[in-house]
Amino acid sequence: MFQYFRKxxxxxxNEHYDQHLAQFLTFIAGAANAGGxxxxxQYTSHMTGIASAAADALALGDLIKVEAALAAILSFVxxxxxxxxxxxxxxRKGMQSQFALPLLLEAGLLGGFGFLGxxxxxxxxxxxxLTVMLLCFIMGLQNAMITKLSGARIRTTHITGMVTxxxxxxxxxxxxxxxxxxxxxxxxDLPKLRLLAMLIFLFFTGxxxxxxxxxxxxxxxxxxxxxxxxxxxxxxxxxxxxAAPAATGRGRENKTQ
Length: 257
Hints:
- By secondary structure, the chain is mostly helical.
- The protein has one domain (2-156, 208-256).
- It is built from nine helices and two strands.
């Protein structure tokens, strides 16, 4: 178990652990998105709908809604940018936790959302509740992390791309190959199809459980998600913290020699 949690969010990656981490994060995104809607009556994981709402509001002359939509989008961008900074900083330092750092920050923010969400909901920034801006920041943080980790192959906070890819693979699956030349045959990527189907299922399942949790427990329901993220991130972070004093000690020994 220790080795699993060490590798699932650690520096040294392979496709197996990339897929497992994506499954965890897709479940968390579905739960935070649907549960967040129950709490604040707004979805925060996908920017397409928010950008469309901003366009509609601008066409109708509702500048307050335009400002609110822009604040949500900029919060998502800020979260993605923060994730990139943390990962690149950790990569430059050669840290085991370069991918775990955004997860650790996300865990802390979701924990804060659970404890302070009701209070934050009463405050607004740029005509949008701070809870909305916080969740958008969290979604951007997570989406950028899995994007960089997987080389832009996997997204977790929205499923539009996944559904599109499933359609592509199903189209390839039913395609009739008249040409017998193996180099030109159209063949579906069945492992990819299974992964995409699993991710969509986990997003939906997380959404159902997140909505139920928020409905019965309110903001505090996000503590479960924060704990799950903490489990994913904590071991690589602890390894780096333990390695830092050792590296400092070796440096001092070299100076005295």
